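Re: [help] complex structure
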Amino acid sequence: MILDHLPALQVVLPLISAPVIVLVRRSRFAWLMAVAVSWVAAAIAVMLAIRVADAGVISYALGNWQPPWGIEYRVDPLSAFVLVLVAGTAAIVAPFSRISVVAELPREQEYLLYAMFCLCLAGLLGITITGDVFNLFVFLEISSLSTYVMVALGQKRQALAAAYRYLIMGTIAATFYVIGIGMLYLMTGTLNMADLSVRLADVTDVRPILAAFAFITVGIGLKLALFPLHQWLPNAYTFAPSAVTAFLGATATKVSIYVLLRFYFTVFGTTLLFRAMPTDQVLMLLSLLGAVTASLVAVFQKDIKRMFAYSSVGQVGYITLGISLANTSGLTAAVVHLLNHAVTKGAIFILIAGITLRTGGASGFDRLKGIGSRMPFTSFGIVIGGLSLIGVPGTAGFVSKWYLVLGAIQRGEWIVAAVVLASSLIAAAYVWKFVETAYLTKPDESSVKAGEAPLPMLAFAWFMVVLCVFLGLDTSLSVGGARAAADFLLGGLR
Amino acid sequence: MRRDIVLRVIAKLIIPFMLLFALYVQFHGDFGPGGGFQAGVIIATAVIFYALIFGLPAARQLLPEWIVETMVASGVLVYAGVGIVSLLLGGSYLDYSVLAHDAVHGQERGIFWVEVGVAITVSGVMLKIFYMFAGRRRDEDNG
Amino acid sequence: MSFASHYSYWATIVLMIAGLYVVIARGNLVKKLIGLGIFQTSVYLLYVAPGKLIGGTAPIIAEGYRTYSNPLPHVLILTAIVVGVATLALGLALVVRIREAYDTIEEDEILRLDDEDGS
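Output below.
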C-alpha cells in the first residue's frame, strides 16, 4: 500500500523534516535528521526508478483530484533519473557536511542550515516529480529561497552580496517563468504538462505561445546559468559554505536543465521548438560561447572554488549543446552529462571543502602551493575529477563528450564537434593550473600546514571519485538510463 | 507613544476585536471570503499593533521569540500532518475525502485543519519578520 | 480590438517594464527590491485580470446566476503573492545584513569594497 504513495512521500518527507528541525533546534539532531531524510529520499528515488523501468510511467493524483484538474505527480524515465541524481547527491553530501559546517558556521545557525538543506532538497525533488507547471513554480521558489539563505550563511561578507544578487536574478527568472506559464494558461486553460502538450498542438504558431516560449526559455536559462545569464553563479558558489557548494554544484543547475528538457520536449514539442523558432541554432551558439568563454575565464581565476564555479558554467554549456542537437546521441549526451558532471563536480567540491577546512576558509591558489604532498589523497582526487572535466578516456567526462561529438557529427555539424574538442583543451589548461600549484610549486610560509582532510570526508569524496572513474569504464547503467530518457523524450514528439 | 493615554486605551479596546475578527475570517472562510492566510495576517497585525503602542519588549513578553518560531514550524506540520493522516486512512496524500464518514464532511474537515495550519504559520512568519526588523535597530542603539 | 478594450494588458506591460527597469538601472539595493516588487505585481495583474468576467460571480452554483468568474487564477496568484512576500522579506533581511557588513547599500560601493578585499 505504502508503495503506491512513494511519489508523494518523496517530496513530503524532506518537506516535513524542515519544520521538525526548527522545532527541536539542536544542531546534532538537525544533522541526524538531514542524513536520515536524504538517505530515505535516495532509497525512495531508487525504488521509483526501478518501478518506472519495470512498469512504465507512474502517475499520482495529489489529493485524489484527477489530472488534468488536480496536481499530478508524474515519474517517467527522465524524472526518475534526475530524482536518483538529486537524492543521491544529498545522501552523499549530508553525512560529511557536519565536519565542514561545524568549522564554518556559528553554532546557533547550524540547525538553520540543515532546515534549509531539507527544504531545498524537497524543492528540487518536487520540481523533478511534479507534472503541473504552476506547482513546479512553487517548488522552484521553495528551493531557490532556501538556497539564498544557505548561500548567505557563508563566512565572508561577500556571501551576503552574492546571495542578494542571486535573489534578484533568481526572482526575475522565476517571474519570467510565471509570465510564460500564465500565457500558456490563458491560451489553453490548463496547467498540466501532458494536457498542455496535447492542447498546444492546435495553437502552435499563435504569437502568445511564442512569447510564452521565449519567457520560459529566458527564465529557466537564468536558473541553469546558460551563458550569458550566468553572472550570479560564480560568486554564489564561491562564498557559500563548502558543503552547500558541493550540494548545489551537483544538483541546482541540473534540475533547471531538467525543467528545460521537460518544457522543450514534453510540453512544447519539436514543431514549435525547431520549426517555428530557430531555438536549436540560438541554443547551440550560446552553449558553445558559454563552454569556451567560461572555461577561458576559469583559467584566470585566483581562487580554486571560483575556478571550478566558472568551469560549471562551461560544463552546463555542453549539456545545453546536447539539447540543441536534438537527436538521440545529443540528448543522451545531455542527460548522461547531468549525472557525470554532478558526480565529478560533487567529488571536486567535497574535496575542496576538505581543503578549506584545513586552511580555515581560504581557497586562493596562493595558499595551496605544494598541497600535493601535504594532502596527497585530496589533491589526487581533484586531479582525477579534473581529468573527467577535460574528458580524458576512462573517466565519466569522456563518455559524455563522446556522445556529444557523435551527436554533432550525426547532424553534420563538424565545426561544433571541433569547438567541443578545442574547449576540452582549455579545460586542460585550468586543471593544469591546479596540478602546477599542488605538485610543482614549493610550499612557502603562507601555504597550508595541516595534513589530510578528516577521514569520513575523504571517504565520501573518494566514493564519488571512484564512481566518476567507474562511470567512465562501465557505461551500462548511466548511458542505459540516459538513453531510455532520451528515447522517451524524443518518442513523445509528434 | 507609551505615555499617550488615548492610544493605550483605544488599543486595549480594539485588540480583542481584531483577534475576534481574525477568528471570524478564519472560520467563515468556508462560506465567504477569508481563510487561514488572511486570518493569520490579522492576528499578526493585532500583535504588531500592540508592539507599536506598548513597545517591543512588552510584545516580546506576550509572545516570546521561541513561541513565534514554534508557530512557524508547527503550522506547516499541521498542514503536512493532514496529508499524512489521509495517507494512513487509505487515501492519497491530502485526500480529504477519507477523513470523515463521507466525502463532503471529509473535505470540510480537511480544509478546516489545513486552514488552521496556514493561519498558525502565517501569523508566526509575519511576527518573526516584524521582530527581526524591529529588533535590529534596538540592538544597535544599545550596543 | 481597440486600444482601450485591452487596457488591463497595457497596465500589465507598463508595470512589467517599469519594474524590470528599476531592478536593472538602480544601484540602491532597497530600490532594486521595490522594482522587483512592481515587476512581480504586474504578473498578478496578468493572471487575475483575464480571470474576471464582467458580471460574473464566485463559482458557487445558485439560482439566478449564469456567469461565473474563473477562480483558479486567484488561487494561483494568492500562492504567488505569498512567494513574493517571502522573497521581499528575505531580500530586505539580506539588505539589513549587507548594511551592517559593508556600511552601505549602494551596489557600486559594495563592488568597490569587494575589489579591495582582493577577490
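The helical segments of chain B are 5-28, 36-54, 56-62, 65-88, 103-142.
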